[in-house]
Request: fold
Amino acid sequence: SFCFERSFRHEFQFQPSRSPRKSGTSTRTGSSPQPEPSRAGRIDAIEEDKIDAATAVMGCGPAFAYQFVEALMTGGVACGLSEEQARLYAAQMLAGASRMVLDTDKPVRALIEAVCSPGGSTIEGVKLLDASDFGKVVAAAVDASYQKNKKLGQK
Reply:
């Protein structure tokens, strides 16, 4: 979860409630024109009217990512991995995939397609996720969090 702190006029700071060493999601928002590195994560300028949307993605997103890791673990265990192996492999995969998204300018869909061989095992799982509206469900979760953030901001 994130603490919200108004520090200067139109300048906002999000800080993880956990140690900055453990979390790379901290973002300071405000009037700075260029993103800046930080020990706690990335510092990024954002308009005040985008705070609720940013919080829905970066503040609530870790819980969604943990749910995905948990689902990967459940699948891995069902296929014969130990819970420890499934946890390690799922978490390492998510860390590597996240790093790839950050390190390239390629569209995310291009990264998905790059790991899918025609007739291979990855494309089978991707087809199932697509048919299950995985992307729409996750986008709806972000929207639900965004709508709640807006309501909380009105109080």
Notes: The two ends are 19 Å apart (CA to CA). Residues 1-13, 19-23, 25-32 have pLDDT under 50 and may be disordered. The first strand starts at residue 2 and ends at 8.
